[in-house]
Design brief:
Elements lengths: L1 E4 L2 H24 L5 H25 L1 E4 L3 E5 L4 E4 L5 E8 L9 E8 L4 E5 L5 H15 L5 H9 L22
Antiparallel strand pairs: 1-2, 2-3, 3-4, 5-6, 6-7
Length: 177
Amino acid sequence: MNSFLYSKKSLKGDYARGIIGIIVTGGLLISATKITIFQYFFAGSAILFFGFFLRTVQRHLTIFLISDEIFHAKGPFGRIIHWSEVTEIRLRYFSTRRERNGNGGWFELTIKDSSSSISIDSSLTGFDDILPICAKFIKENKIIVTETTIENFSSAGFTLDRDFAPAAEFPKKPNSL
């Protein structure tokens, strides 16, 4: 069984953003003397930053375990997905720049069964070791994935055949006479 986790280094920025956001919006909320529309805005923003901070703590405390039988997120709100029950695997790329050249972005891998899902992103230590496991599983079990997932696996260095894409994504060419 292999284990993976988010490193402290990869979460350091998220912790800083969460804490700074809570302090700034909370401070502005407390310093307001009258109830105005701004207080509602600051209160909502403080709640969002607090939620982001809690999500970062959850990611920090979660260990992902992978074996031939299961994919387990062990930690707060943990889940277990049995590979035999997987219904969908999706790999998405989020770019922070206009040109999608692989610099300045991250991948998000989502694995679903009929009742739950586990999502991880490419800042997870060992993320590159999880992708070949998923690509192998997709091929062996003929899991149908989206065209975007096929392209993203390909850009990550793992080729999936177009046979795994749903037919609806590929319009048929009209018959020519």
